[in-house]
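U., I forgot to send this yesterday:
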Amino acid sequence: MLENLTQRLSRVVKSLRGEARLTEANVQEALREVRVALLEADCALPVVKDFIAAVKGKALGEEVIGSLSPGQALVGVVHRELTRIMGEANAQLDLATQPPAVILMAGLQGSGKTTTTGKLARMLLEQRKKVLTVSCDVYRPAAIEQLKAVSAEVGADFLPSHGGEKPLDIALRALEHAKLRYYEVLLVDTAGRLAIDEAMMGEIRALHAALCPIETLFVVDAMQGQDAVNTARAFNEALALTGVVLTKLDGDARGGAALSVRKVTGKPIKFVGIGEKLNALEPFHPERMAARMLGMGDIVSLVEEARKGVDEEKALELANKIRKGKGFDLGDFRDQVAQMRKMGGLSALMDKLPAQIAQNVNPAQLADDNQIRRLEGIINSMTRAERAKPELLKAARKRRVATGAGVTVQEVNRLLNQFEQMQKMMKMMRGGNLQRMMRGMKGMMPGR
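Result:
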């Protein structure tokens, strides 16, 4: 995510090493690189000009003159200005209205609108809201069935509709249904088009007038860059948007949309989609995104993901087990792997780590979801005794486990080697020797 911009900005910081202080000359040179980085990121030109002028004025101001670390000083100013243009703080959903709170989802076809509706339903269900979804997209083949499927997957109630109905009739029927059955939130997925047209705008304006939504969210593909910003601006002029959802940010190496959309439309980015899975939706925090762009990582979001993904009772049980010296077996290893999968896998976590740490890990060796599932399958193919005592796994047993899991014996051996390394690290933890444990972890780093 945003790799190109991050790499460019990191080079700017390095270029200031050895300088005694920030001066007009070295700031000018550094900002020339920043300008190129932002334009390459497909950031809107007015946003670039505003950003460069603000950074230059503050970098040469009282706050950083005489700094012993000009690179760090400039990074601080750049971080604050990136945060400013992206909106300062997280803008949360406003659900303060007489139930049901109606959320209208708008956007072009292919932007990820229907999937985002399912993701948002999942997030609201986690907040213990009673959620109903409905599709008013009677034009795209299988659009209604798609929303039905994602709603079922996340556990949200879905109101059926069909292609022969008018979108306005569907919306009014859904609103009445939600009121009668005391739903707290009604998510209305609307039709998209391949491009902005007057018929599309007229239809969604009519839906907006009939439903009086508390939130009207524009869903846009971040990979479109400047086009995404222009589309958001056009929708904002035609409709009273309350916020933007940027999808496919995990595939966007540029970052221009994230930087520009708030400044150009005046509407906050409320959420970002960071993958295809239905848990891959995050609240947008400008300060954290600015830190990620500068290669600082996003440790706060990482901790939040860990809190959601970790079974605290099992974690405490494992900690007690290790402390009492009862060892770390393959059953425990399987539980740790499962919790890693809940958190989106290693690649999702790596994206939030500071660049200095992440660059030491070989991306080719990161476990994707399929690899994690294979590990679980191998361990599940073992008997309880084999999980407790891996030394029982001789050649014949390994062949049986491999056949049961649908993998090769080599993959079983690879898992056992990984487990042995993990077991050694756990023994170091039991001994309380932090330095030994850190040396062990360093030895386990891929690519060493």
